[in-house]
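User: Can you help me understand a structure? I only have the sequence.
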Amino acid sequence: MNKKAAGLVTFFLASLCSAGAIAQSDPFSDYEEGRVDPNTAMPFLEGVPSEDQTSSEALPVLQVQAGKWSVGARGALSWTTGRNEVVDGQRERNTNLFLRFTPTFAFFVWDNVEVAGSLGFLSHSLARPDGIATETDWLLEATGHYYIKLTDRLALAPGLGLGAYLGSSERPVTAVVDGTARTVRESTSTVGGLTAVYGDVIYQLSSNLRLRAGLALTAMFGSESIASSGKSLGSQTVNTGVTLGLFYVF
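Assistant: Let's start by predicting it. Here is the structure, written out as tokens:
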């Protein structure tokens, strides 16, 4: 009797185990037959970027396709040699600091070809019989660059620039005041043109920020008008300077 009872219990437990195994579904079959939503089948992968997404976010690419545009600012700094006429007809020559700063808008008209327009200011020195005066001008310039990509983030961008400037300076003038000769400072007006050759290196810092630096050979040809004497005196400046700019790319 005990043996029969034990046998019945053993058979009953074995039947329960077999039924549970049959009732449990095969996850691979469920997925293939559409009983498992593929979007929630592996929730532990949610929010994990793919390899392609990770690499694209980590390594920004320098975009040079037609239609891309950017805004920013660039400047140039150098020690330069200048020559300018003085009232007595002589020409003065001096070495001086040349500085310019120009907010800029740039646009790719074709692949690798960028044109830009900028409006800013420039400043440099003029020689005077009694020393040095500073000339400050508004500068309007148009430039064109051709991009030569070296890597996904780095490129060379040689270019040409053409501009015009308008500003003022001052010079010493001897005037008779109450019967006494005195030297006073007279304001003058300046106007001229500018040409430049650029050798820029472009580096993509992030998806939207672009750094550009390099060298610029700049030539300025203009004149300075003196109202008191009715004269217009010529001036020429040629310099090679360091350029630096930061741009936001759209």
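Now, to help you interpret it: The beta strands are 69-85, 91-110, 113-128, 131-146, 148-149, 154-177, 180-204, 209-226, 231-249. The CA atoms of residues 56 and 94 lie 52 Å apart. Let me know which part you'd like to focus on.
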